[in-house]
Amino acid sequence: MLFKRVKPLDQILATAAKKSLKRQLGAFQLTMLGVGAVIGTGIFVLTAEAGQKAGPAMMLAFVIAAVVCGLAALAYAELASMLPVSGSAYTYTYGVLGELIAWIVGWALVLEYAVGASVVSVGWSGYMNGLLANTDLFGLVAPGALALPAYFRTGMFAGGGFNLLAFLISLVVTVLLVIGTSKSARVNAVLVAIKIVALTMFVIVAVPAAQSTNFEPFLPGGWGSPLGGVGVLGAAASIFFAYVGFDAVSTAAEETKNPNRNIPIGLIGSLGICTIFYLLVGYGAVGASGAQPLLGADGMPLDPGSAAMAAACAASDALVCSKEPLAHVLRALGHGTLGNLIGIAAALALPSVILMMMFGQTRIFFTMSRDGLLPEVFSKVHPRFHTPYVITIITGIVVAICSALFPVGKLADTSNSGTLLAFAMVSVGVLILRKTDPNRLRPFRVPLVWVVCPLAIFGCVLLFFNLSITAKEVFGGWAIIGLFVYFLYSYKNSQLAREEEK
């Protein structure tokens, strides 16, 4: 019965119509939301993480991650154009694979969005702390006078105590999201422009400074390990986070004008723009500064976020140790002022990624609450701002606490575990619907669907098994907790369960 409890697509659309959000976003805003969600911690911070795992071969990791995301984006575009409602992969799975699988996907999306928002908050604090440590405020104070005490720069699991700036930025974004979608979208468009200008400036300076010797040896960590977490595939599994966020466009489907046209544009357009920037920035970072990993006694790269890595970085100024790698590269090239400007741009623009991650999380839980899988209070809409404010506030508090305590690398891998499951399920859903409902209107159709979707599924599985052991353990534990919640509450209280009782 569990797998037979499928919510028909027409019923999903009808449910959304009864308690819907205001349609106010166009194609440009959606594309900017996608770019805003994608360009962020992945390229500004995780470049160092990828370098430690793969060395210069992280360039290949960028390509592998981009291909997997591109294939999944096509699947997302088809389903989002068919079902222009909130909920993303959770909603699509509910209409194809049934309630239990939908619950597992929705529960896993917490790892993508809420944990992902924590990743970006920590990344933002790294740039902001670096900026405070390297500025003299135009000569008004001594260099470094504004720097926070070490205890407040990183979390207790990253060598510090409480990441104060990451905690505060999470709360600020929460307030902005409660105020309203259209307001946050307009702010986001400005922040996206800042990020694009900053990355363009970095490319102009770093790419011409690239030297071929910095690419040798090209594969110091090899292709990967059976346990995952190192090599090119391990780096691809981590840098995958750099592309995550484009699917947040689909969570805004219910708030989009003409979604059948604008959702595919936002999904594919944002991913294409970001891929071009990533390849240029990755080449510039490796070529200009070098990205050789720090090796352990076994000759393999040390695990980022480990005590051994922290000890090795204490006496090293390598790119792979930097918490602000792009600014680090420019300062190493003698462009200290430009490095500070990159830091300012990251400090100004990364909050847009936190915004979109938290936006996606609240819309997932809003939809799950509307379906009865979570308490009804989670789908309560503010009478003035027309936003799901209860779940937004709860999400903001959780994100703030996680970002204050945990290191960026471990958070990123954990976030990716939930994302990869969601991407794979969306691709499975497209294939099933092509067989079970072939005549339904599809404003956007995946080309070569029986090639594209299986490749997307394979890519997601491959990257999942190359995540760190910690990420896979957290994913398993989180899934077990989710199953307990489902059988204790959601199974009996879902909308479909109530209909079965009638």
UniProtKB/TrEMBL annotation:
Question: Sorted alphabetically, which keywords does the UniProt record give?
Answer: Membrane, Transmembrane, Transmembrane helix, Transport
Chief location = membrane
Source organism, top-level taxon: Bacteria
What are its GO cellular component terms?
Answer: membrane
Q: Does the keyword Transport apply?
A: yes
- Report the transmembrane regions from the record: 27-48, 60-80, 100-124, 158-180, 187-210, 230-253, 265-286, 341-366, 387-406, 418-436, 448-469, 475-491
Q: How does it sit in the membrane?
A: Multi-pass membrane protein
Return the InterPro entries for the record: AA/rel_permease1 (IPR002293)
Identify a single GO molecular function assigned to this protein. amino acid transmembrane transporter activity
Per UniProt, subcellular location reads as: Membrane
Does the keyword Protein biosynthesis belong to this entry? Answer: no
Q: What is this protein identified as?
A: Amino acid permease
The scientific name of the source species is: Pseudolysobacter antarcticus
